[in-house]
Amino acid sequence: xxxxxxxxxxxxxxAGSVSNLSSVERDTILQVLRTTNGHRxxxxxxxxxxxxxxxxxxxxxxxxxxxxxxx
Length: 71
Description:
Order of helices and strands: HHHH
Structural class: mainly alpha
Strand content: under 5%
Radius of gyration: 15 Å
Largest sheet: none
Number of strands: 0
Number of helices: 4
């Protein structure tokens, strides 16, 4: 078995505090939607995911008030 040695990402910093990966994903998706003025296909293209995946993810964020502002 091959053991991979990992090293911390040097010079890589998050803006603000990061609570977990899912919140980073949500915040990124919402920011891209704001950038595209709510255009889901363009946002999905920029994120490298399908429009359907984007919609599924948005449905899981439905309780977040920010989502309705960009949809």
